[in-house]
Automatic annotation (TrEMBL):
Positions of CMP binding: N145
Naturally occurring in which organism (per UniProt): Medicago truncatula
Higher taxonomy: Eukaryota, Viridiplantae, Streptophyta, Embryophyta, Tracheophyta
Cofactor(s) the record lists: Mg(2+)
Gene name in the database record: 25491834
Full protein name: UMP-CMP kinase
PANTHER family associated with the record: NUCLEOTIDE KINASE
The record's note on its domains: Consists of three domains, a large central CORE domain and two small peripheral domains, NMPbind and LID, which undergo movements during catalysis. The LID domain closes over the site of phosphoryl transfer upon ATP binding. Assembling and dissambling the active center during each catalytic cycle provides an effective means to prevent ATP hydrolysis.
Domain of life: Eukaryota
Record's catalysed reaction(s): dCMP + ATP = dCDP + ADP; UMP + ATP = UDP + ADP; CMP + ATP = CDP + ADP
Length: 241
């Protein structure tokens, strides 16, 4: 299980995002344009993982389903590196980035930031440090996110966690989160829930069909939920040993 496709590095280094006719290129050309320039990758932007033996776990679920909370427990118990796509975007938003204003507006509206920005931030972060076990939280949020990542890295996640939570519970949790997030208000939450259903559920279905999805009932105490998560990672550790 702790394996990585051997084609990853090769794909990352040789893939030309602007190459005519490539699937990824087609995906990126669906993006809207910013300041007259297409939001797309160029070869120089593509960063490769240092090693080929990385473990990649995607962590999915609606807003407030408890992804970040459970990721902290997984980090503590199984030593993964936690990369939250939302956190990376918020960090980019307050930096000098040319995409700052676009990210702010997109998050405020509960929409999805183009993959060219998000995948680049994730891959950049994967370069730092020696930990090769990644929890990628809140990504992929759309089929377009998924296809971009899989084409750029030439690989699929080892497995995917889905925190399945009723809407009412998610709304309650987000409204009492109190972390000053610009999207933690009822109007944006309603939009995020619609986007989750329209764009993220198809990704979840995709990984279920691929046999990579672990559905977690996200209702209960944090401890109760972690007891469903634990065996997924414990089994993977055993396979690796
Ligand atoms: N099992 C739980 N029961 C009650 N509250 C919880 C539970 N798990 C997490 N919370 C709380 O719910 C809020 C949302 O949790 P968290 O930030 O982990 O969700 P998330 O899935 O990462 O959300 P988002 O996608 O908006 O980032 C937090 O305030 C957290 O403390
Ligand atoms: N792959 C992603 C992940 C997030 N976003 C945007 O960030 C917002 C907050 O994300 P959280 O995971 O912290 O809830 C989200 O609503 C999106 O606007 C994104 O575009 N793409
Ligand atoms: Mg979160």
């Amino acid at each position: 299980m702790w394996k990585r496709a051997t084609s990853s590095l090769k794909s990352l280094l040789s893939f030309h995002i602007t190459q005519e006719g490539s699937k990824l290129n087609n995906a990126f050309h669906c993006h809207r344009f910013i300041s007259g320039s297409p939001l797309h990758f160029q070869e120089k932007d593509v960063v490769s993982p240092k090693h080929m033996d990385s473990v990649i776990t995607f962590v999915l679920g609606g807003p407030g389903s408890g992804k970040g909370t459970q990721c902290a427990r997984i980090v503590e118990t199984f030593g993964f590196k936690h990369l939250s796509a939302g956190d990376l975007l918020r960090k980019e938003m307050v930096s000098d980035s040319e995409y700052g204003a676009m990210i702010l507006e997109t998050i405020r509206e509960g929409r999805i930031v183009p993959s060219a920005v998000t995948v680049r931030l994730i891959l950049r972060e994967m370069q730092y440090g020696d930990n090769r076990k990644f929890l990628i939280d809140g990504f992929p949020r759309s089929e377009e996110n998924r296809i971009a990542f899989e084409h750029i890295t030439g690989t699929e996640p080892d497995f995917v966690l889905f925190f399945d939570c009723p809407e009412e519970e998610m709304v309650k949790r987000v409204l009492s989160r109190n972390q000053g997030r610009i999207d933690d208000n009822i109007d944006t939450i309603k939009k995020r829930l619609k986007v989750f259903e329209a764009l993220n559920l198809p990704v979840i279905d995709h990984y279920a069909r691929r046999g990579r999805l672990h559905r977690i009932n996200a209702v209960g105490t944090e401890d109760e939920i972690f007891e469903q998560v634990r065996p997924v990672f414990a089994a993977c550790e055993q396979t690796a040993a």
